[in-house]
Write a structure and sequence with these properties.
Elements (H helix, E strand, L loop, with lengths): L7 H21 L2 H27 L6 H14 L8 E2 L3 E6 L5 H4 L7 H16 L6 E7 L8 E7 L2
Antiparallel strand pairs: 1-2, 2-4, 3-4
Helix pairs in contact: 1-2, 2-3, 2-5
Length: about 160
């Protein structure tokens, strides 16, 4: 498959479109609607992470421990990130020093509170793939909220 080359002008247009969309969601709808839309977007990113994990460990993760191992390998191998998920009973913890959103990393978006709802959907999606019970995500700190780092807890029932 031929790699798609994207011009700098197209990148700027797309970045402006993403910014306008992210600003319009909370401004022209309810905050709850903006959160649900972004969580749904995060579910799509979750699928990409699960696909990457399958490629790294050779199979779909089936338990929380396998998921954490695979996502941590992905963070180290693909993204060269030193921060990893840590399990604390039926809770997982992640603390990162920079926004990990691929749109932010690509220069297509700026960290914002709207993006943090996307992260919630992403984490719900990856953990729900291996858990039988409910999954809850707590955003303790977020660069999109103006904090100096992002910190998340995921509560789950295996």
């Amino acid at each position: 498959m031929k790699k798609l080359e994207i011009s700098e002008a197209a990148i700027k247009v797309n970045a402006a479109w993403i910014e306008a969309t992210e600003n319009a969601l909370p401004a022209h709808g309810s905050p709850a609607l903006a959160e649900e839309v972004m969580k749904a977007a995060g579910q799509k990113c979750a699928q990409q992470i699960l696909d990457d994990c399958r490629g790294i460990v050779g199979k779909k993760p089936e338990t929380v421990d396998e998921l954490l191992d695979a996502t941590n390998q992905r963070r180290l191998q693909i993204h060269n990130l030193a921060s990893v998920w840590e399990r604390q009973g039926n809770k997982a913890h992640l603390e990162i020093d920079e926004c990990a959103c691929t749109l932010v990393k690509a220069g297509l978006a700026k960290p914002s509170a709207v993006d943090c709802s996307c992260s919630i959907g992403l984490m719900e999606g990856i953990f729900s793939a291996v858990c039988r019970g409910p999954v809850g995500v707590e955003v303790v700190k977020a660069i999109g909220f103006g904090d100096d780092k992002c910190e998340f807890y995921v509560d789950f029932v295996e």
